[in-house]
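Q: How would the structure tokens look for this protein?
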Amino acid sequence: MQAFSSELELRIDWSEIDILGHVNSLAILKYVQAARVQYLEGLGLMQSQAEQGIGPILASLSCQYRKPLFYPGKVRVRCKVDEIGNTSFRMQHSVCADGGEVVAEAQDVIVLYDFAKATKTPIPGDLRARIQQVECARGARTLKAAAQAGM
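A: Here is the predicted structure in token form.
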């Protein structure tokens, strides 16, 4: 199982059910969005956007639906950054049902954007370091858990 650095649990709402009786694909993308925003807030990017006019924008999103998700229940979205470029970074998301079964996997690219100049901007060293710190902490937690399990 892949290690993820962030996790968000959400309640499945009855209004997210489609005519076929399972959670609509758009609702799953909203779950991914909520987890993405939580991660970006943790990095301080939403505050940076408000204060400096430099913040994240979604450049691309793809989602592979693996299994249907049903109401009632909860959904858990795990995410991590697995690649950092000059002006963007890629996030991976795993959407899981109550029992831990993966129902969807999503990937997106976030671009750092200067709203005053209306252009993308390089990822500064301090942001790059915060992302790496979050992701390295994930690795350390994974190694600690493996050691405790006797692996």
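Confidence is low (pLDDT under 50) at residues 140-151.

Residues 3 and 106 are 15 Å apart (CA to CA).

Upvote if useful.
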